[in-house]
DNA sequence: GCGACGATGGGCT
DNA sequence: GCCCATCGTCGCA
């Protein structure tokens, strides 16, 4: 199964976010591959985007976003949850795609263990849940998803038909001014 | 099924 | 010192 190349990520972050739907995210955890189909994404685009962390400019935290595309940008949210992004566009321009949901397809038993006590339905259906299920944390910040020996990468899968894609405003940014609050850069894959 | 809310810590003004 | 790109639980219907 071919992996997505750096060229895939070196494009408009909104396009990358939409086209990541249905692709297969793989996390190699103790030599065991855990995988899920990407069901929800969100684009954060440049210093002008007031919902993007790069609105504050280049800092220690946002440094990875300013680097080359195809790397993981991971940060701690609300002091509790690790959130996983993939850097997009060109080096020097800060943009990333937040992975907000997965449908588990491989290593489900391990994911259940990582998410003890949770029903299968909620193993990875949120940005903080999926990092827990895949054991993704700051140790992978800056990791290159296009490297030969990557422990985190994305495999090419069939693209879903446009009729199965929903575009909506991004989640959890109610304090952000327009137009950034309402721009439809959240993408969801309809199941069924 | 839904709304309120507490947990919890780093980043930035 | 305030602000979060969230999750799980509780109370109530």
Strand content: 25-35%
Average pLDDT across residues?
A: 97
| Structure summary, number of beta strands | 8
Helix content: 10-25%
The gross shape turns out to be globular
Structural class: alpha+beta
Oligomer designation: single chain
**Total of helices:** 4
What is the rounded Rg?
Answer: 15 Å
Order of helices and strands: HHEEEEEHHEEE
| Major β-sheet annotation | 8 strands, antiparallel
Distance between the termini: 24 Å
Poorly predicted sequence stretches spanning 5 or more consecutive residues = none
Report on the structure:
The protein is built from four helices and eight strands. A hairpin with a 3-residue loop joins strand 3 and strand 4. The radius of gyration is 15 Å and the shape is globular. By secondary structure, the protein is α+β, with helices and mostly antiparallel strands. It starts with 5 loop residues before the first helix and ends with a strand. 14% of the residues lie in helices and 30% in strands.
Concise overview:
With 192 residues, the chain is of the alpha+beta class.
Provide tags for this entry.
eight-stranded antiparallel beta sheet, 4 helices, 8 strands, DNA-binding
Map the helices and strands.
Blueprint: H1 6-9, H2 13-19, E1 24-29, E2 32-45, E3 72-77, E4 81-87, E5 95-106, H3 108-114, H4 127-134, E6 152-155, E7 165-168, E8 186-189
Antiparallel strand pairs: 1-2, 1-6, 2-5, 2-8, 3-4, 4-5, 7-8
The protein binds a DNA duplex (13 and 13 nucleotides) through strand 3, strand 4 and helix 4.
């Amino acid at each position: 199964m071919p992996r997505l190349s750096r060229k895939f990520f070196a494009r408009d972050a909104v396009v990358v976010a939409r086209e990541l739907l249905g692709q297969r995210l793989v996390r190699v955890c103790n030599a065991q591959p855990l995988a899920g189909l990407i069901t929800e994404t969100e684009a954060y685009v440049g210093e002008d985007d007031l919902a993007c962390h790069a609105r504050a400019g280049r800092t220690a935290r946002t440094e990875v976003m300013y680097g080359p595309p195809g790397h993981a940008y991971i940060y701690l949210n609300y002091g509790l949850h690790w959130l996983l992004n993939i850097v997009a566009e060109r080096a020097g321009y800060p943009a990333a795609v937040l992975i907000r949901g997965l449908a588990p397809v491989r290593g489900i038993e391990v994911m259940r263990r990582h998410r003890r006590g949770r029903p299968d339905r909620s193993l990875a259906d949120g940005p903080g849940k999926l990092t827990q299920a895949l054991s993704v944390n700051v140790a992978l910040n800056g990791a290159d998803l296009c490297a030969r020996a990557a422990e985190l990468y994305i495999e090419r899968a069939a693209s879903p038909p446009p009729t199965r894609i929903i575009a909506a405003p991004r989640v959890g940014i109610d304090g952000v001014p327009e137009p950034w609050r309402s721009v439809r850069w959240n993408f969801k894959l309809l199941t069924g």
